[in-house]
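Q: Predict the bound structure with biotin.
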Amino acid sequence: MLTPLGFSLLRQLADGDFHSGEELAATVGLTRARVSQVLKEAEAAGLAMERVKGRGYRLLEAPDFLDPKAVKTCLATFDAGRGVARPITLEVVDEIDSTSTELMRRIGRRDIHGVALAAEWQTAGRGRRGRVWTAIVGGSLLFSLGWRFEQGAGFLAGLSLAVGVAVARALDAEGFAGVALKWPNDLIHRHLKFGGILIELNGDALGPSTTVIGIGLNVRLPAAARKDIAQPVTDLASIAGRKGPAIDRNRLFARLLAELAAVLRQYANEGFAPFGAEWQHRHAYQGKVVRLLLPDGATVTGKVAGVDASGALVLADGPRRARFLSGEISLRRAG
Ligand code: BTN
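A: Predicted complex:
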């Protein structure tokens, strides 16, 4: 677990240079022994560090900490010419239980429309279907965006798929090749997951609704962290490879926000329909035979015909067509 003190030490070490224990201790007003202990905790949290007698400490892969100023500058460039009426309100924190839990807590107390909350570290990150979302300080991108819609839950059924389209567009624009979607909204590369989307909703059946759109991306996930995750995963650094784009999390975050805001504005007016064809084009399993695991434990096998105008998955079994709404269903490759 990283404390605020741990983050302030890591920020000093983020230049990738050696810093002596004495120097670090003096800046935070603690003993060298305490500094050493806090940095051990950072190592346990997945940050690789070098300790050299006489020189001090150095981060082997210094994280590019999120910096709201840098995100805002990039966002202004990406939004230029889009005629954005209301800008995104940006908040970055070091540590929180979950960015989505925090925005959900605020509903009813504050207006969260257009609020993007990012965290370097989540102590209780949540995934879909009650799963835990594992992340690493400086190696993940974790944020939630609040958005208000006049409509109710029925209209928002395809929202998570449209959000997948927005994320894939952002990654395309940043030069990551071969990114695909897996119904309903996993982000995958060569069948390995590297990101997920969690949509939560609050409101009346007929609207208005407040949604919290939580997004988690693996940016640089060390092997040790991958072992804690139940399924095989990948990260953006592996997708980019040595020839791919250098990853700047601030720029990537800004790109994601710009694409998301554009998609959400369009969705509010037109629903999922205008995103259907693009979603299918980006679906890794389009036309493939898949197996669905239903909440009651039953399985259904069929060929993916596509998604309908509300975002439901359409499976073909001979001439028969069956529709499935995302909820608690999980999709697997058949065979
Ligand atoms: C999934 O299971 O695929 C969805 C994962 C969503 C994780 C993100 S990380 C930021 C936000 N806060 C959370 O607790 N979860 C979402």
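A: Residues 100 and 144 are 5 Å apart (CA to CA).
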